[in-house]
Design a protein that fits this description.
GO terms for molecular function: DNA helicase activity; hydrolase activity. InterPro entries: DEAD/DEAH_box_helicase_dom, Helicase_ATP-bd, Helicase_C-like, NA-bd_OB-fold, P-loop_NTPase, RecG/Mfd, RecG_dom3_C, RecG_wedge. It holds the Pfam family RecG_wedge. This is Probable DNA 3'-5' helicase RecG. Residues 524-533 have a biased composition (Low complexity). There is one protein chain. The chain is α/β, with parallel strands linked by helices and 755 residues long. Helix content is 40%, strand content 18%. It contains 27 helices and 21 strands. A seven-stranded parallel beta sheet has the order 11-12-10-13-14-9-15, with helices on both faces. The chain has a six-stranded parallel beta sheet with strand order 16-21-20-17-19-18, with helices on both faces. A five-stranded mixed β-barrel has the order 2-3-4-6-5. Strand 13, helix 15 (421-428) and strand 14 form a beta-alpha-beta unit. The radius of gyration is 30 Å and the shape is globular.
């Protein structure tokens, strides 16, 4: 039997059991490959130190600094001792604190002038930043001139580490590993990049890249290594996506061409407005795809209110004209019911096919959700299998085995980021041949993310709002700094309602120990009382903003609704809506709100997608700093849907200079969702964005950042498409296949975990 391929070798064999156990448990590193790909977060230079002034609170950090002064202090009437060591880097200082016996041992080493690497969790005591009992490694211990010289020239890699395994221990582990690979001349290392691509783009060989990223001599080394390792990630991922696109394009599908004088023409004839230019362009792209004998795979991105539903409905009607059926999938029952309501309203008598008074071209539009009564469900299933219903709208209940279609031609998926590839495949198997697929999302996705996450879909973008939509004004309400602003907020809500409009108040939690949607937490005592007074918390919990002690729990729907009804909004019709309510009561509240029988709806983010009440003009978002940028943008899209201008007020306790306030200011400053999604990505790092969207992607991205590496991703996509077109099975590129299998295994594992 040959050697285990170098990268698959378990760390246990290389570093010993106990070290490997800590690395596996705390850093999720299991094999030689995992450790080689665990890249330094940054590099400290001998002469230049981390900026202590910029240290984040509550994070585990490694700093390189010099001891400025050290003092032993007593406390508790002389019974206790502590050593306080102030270290500095020129930009700021940090205090290291050691208690008890450990203090004496360290007093001898940590003397002014010594330099070292110190690791610990940053906390604040008496307004001074400190590390309590940090681990450290002194950098000038060896007095030997050679050692000092070797050290002086080196860039010190600082790794993403944890309390149990500090950065310098990782350096030692990586050194051991590199020495082993060097001794064996990197035998068994597979290089995923085809040699022609590597040479054509002047990229370093893989062993070189690993050497340079872990043991750089110069900053140029780090750049070379990064350029090469980013290409690996981007290219392997894009090959996986290109192969998926290629496989899809080989599938047969029934071409669905709309017929003249059918239901689509009848629908267009009675539209009370003209389509925007964007809607016409995107519709043309979709109808071209539907007319081919391979399945369409298209992502339709559009701002809230840009008229995506209209475009999707026209595509569905075109397919019905061509003799097929169309299914629309929504992430929640509330949304499915809303889509059903809005589609039947838009279609009018055309949705009453086969009924008296229905139009001759009509077709039945049925709703299918998990909570339907048996009789209604049986009828819906029957209408689908006989082909009586041309359009079905539902939740993923549609994917169940029991659901049979007469001839499924098109699947429209709403809000893709809640809907994985495996569900698409399940639905695809419902057609006699794979149906065409249109995926809609209202979350604007920057082009690079679309290429990375939805790289197996073609993209269409709707970026203009239909005529008649009003602009939305957004303002930040600093409840803690300026309590009278909050009082004014409730006055504004009253004014809008007196003007005949309606309002939303959104909170992060449900309350009554119900936590966030599906999450039990303790209620915020007193948080709501102050919702009416002006502050948005119980005073005591207030130092709690941004990393300063404990934050108070987020405000809750049930508390806030009760306070508003008793206080600033008394006399108005206030109702609540949240994800824990029974579907019937949710529906009932939504119906009454839509009918104008409710003035103020206090809700969780269940209203984020798809609620359409043109008469609602104002939205107050409580604890707005607890929501993501894109989420705030989505929520805000619920107001200003009619002819009256919309107003969105972001209430927050976050202090003025905090990152949270900067985020809220960005939302208030632009209505461009693509711009905001960039900001969101830059701030959250793309993990969350990709993680929501597609499993497997994040785990494979270690060096590549989706926002900054747009050029690499676009170039890799082109190269990947060319490679796959020439050799779909990658027979000539065995190393690339190996890398691809490793990536896809990881993806498959994640699907299994999720499933």
């Amino acid at each position: 039997m040959g050697r285990v391929p170098a990268l698959h070798e378990p760390l246990k064999k290389i570093l010993g059991g106990s070290t490997a156990k800590v690395m596996a448990e705390h850093l999720d590193l299991h094999t030689a490959g995992d450790l080689l790909h665990h890249y330094p977060r940054r590099y400290a230079e001998r002469g230049e130190l981390t900026r202590l002034a910029d240290l984040p609170l509550d994070e585990h950090v490694t700093v390189v600094a010099q001891v400025a002064k050290a003092a032993m202090k007593t406390f508790n009437h002389g019974k206790g001792v502590r050593l306080e060591v102030v270290v500095t880097d020129g930009s700021g200082s940090l205090t290291l604190v050691f208690f008890g016996r450990g203090a004496y041992a360290r007093e001898k080493e940590l003397i002014p002038g010594r330099r070292g690497m110190f690791a610990g969790k940053v906390s604040v005591f008496n307004r001074t930043r400190q590390l309590l009992h940090p681990d450290y490694e002194l950098l000038d211990r060896d007095s030997g001139a050679d050692a000092a010289e070797a050290f002086a020239g080196r860039l010190l890699p600082i790794y993403p580490a944890c309390k149990q395994f500090q950065s310098w221990k990782l350096t030692k582990a990586v050194d051991t590993l590199l020495d082993l690979f060097e001794a064996e001349q990197w035998e068994g290392l597979t290089d995923p990049l085809p040699p022609s691509l590597r040479d054509g783009r002047g990229l370093a060989a893989l062993p070189d890249a690993f050497r340079k990223v872990h043991r750089p001599r110069t900053k140029a080394d780090i750049e070379d290594a990064r350029a090469r390792l980013k290409w690996d990630e981007a290219f392997v991922l894009q090959v996986a996506l290109a192969r998926r696109r290629h496989a899809d394009s080989q599938l047969p599908a029934v071409a669905r061409k709309p017929v003249a004088g059918g239901i689509l023409d009848a629908f267009d004839a009675k539209l009370p407005f003209t389509l925007t230019e964007g809607q016409r362009t995107v519709s043309a792209e979709i109808f071209d795809d539907l007319a081919t004998e391979h399945p369409m795979h298209r992502l339709l991105q559009g701002e809230v209110g840009s008229g995506k539903t209209m475009v999707a409905l026209r595509a569905m009607l075109g397919v019905v004209d061509a003799g097929g059926q169309a299914a629309m999938l929504a992430p929640t029952e509330v949304l499915a019911q809303q889509h059903h309501r809005s589609v039947t309203e838009m279609m009018g008598e055309l949705a009453e096919g086969g009924m008296l008074g229905g139009a001759e071209h009509g077709t039945k539009v049925v709703l299918l959700t998990g909570s339907m009564g048996t009789a209604a469900r049986r009828q819906a299933l029957l209408d689908l299998v006989t082909g009586e219903a041309g359009i079905v709208i539902g939740t993923h209940a549609l994917i169940e085995d029991k659901v049979q279609f007469h001839d499924l031609g098109l699947v429209v998926v709403d809000e893709q980021h809640r809907f994985g590839v495996e569900q698409r495949d399940a639905l695809r198997s419902k057609g006699k041949q794979p149906p065409h697929l249109l995926v809609m999302t209202a979350t604007p996705i920057p082009r690079t993310v679309a290429m990375t996450v939805f790289g197996d879909l073609e993209t269409s973008v709707l970026d203009q709002l239909p005529a008649g939509r009003s602009p939305i004004a957004t303002h930040v309400v600093p409840a803690k700094d300026k309590p009278h602003f909050l009082a004014r907020t409730w006055e504004r809500v009253r004014e809008e309602i007196e003007g005949g409009h309606q309002a939303y108040v959104v909170c992060p939690r449900i309350g009554d120990d119900l936590g966030e949607e599906g999450d039990a937490r303790t209620p915020a005592k007193g948080a709501a009382q102050s919702a009416s007074k002006g502050g948005a918390g119980d005073g005591a919990g207030q130092a709690a903003a941004e990393g300063d002690g404990e934050r108070r729990p987020p405000l809750a729907v049930l508390d806030v609704a009760a306070q508003l009804a008793k206080g600033p909004l008394s006399g108005l019709r206030v109702e609540v809506l949240h994800g824990r309510m029974q579907p019937d009561s949710k529906d009932d509240v939504m119906r009454r709100f839509a009918a104008g029988e409710v003035d103020v709806l206090v809700a969780t983010t269940v209203i984020e997608v798809g609620v359409n009440v043109p008469n609602s003009t104002v939205m107050v978002i409580m604890d707005a700093d607890r929501f993501g940028v894109s989420q705030l943008h989505q929520l805000r899209g619920r107001v200003g849907r009619g002819s009256a201008p919309g107003l969105c007020l972001l209430v927050t306790d976050a202090p003025e200079a905090s990152p949270s306030r900067a985020r809220l200011a960005a939302v208030a400053g632009t209505l461009d969702g693509f711009e905001l999604s960039r900001i969101d990505l830059e701030q959250r790092r793309e993990g969350d964005v990709l993680g929501q969207a597609q499993s497997g992607v994040r785990s494979s991205l270690r060096m590549l950042t989706v926002i900054d590496d747009e050029e690499v991703i676009a170039a890799a996509r082109e190269e990947a498409a060319a490679v796959v077109a020439a050799d779909p099975e990658l027979e000539a590129l065995p190393d690339l296949r190996t890398a691809l299998d490793a990536l896809l295994d990881e993806e498959r594992e994640q699907y299994l975990d999720k499933g």
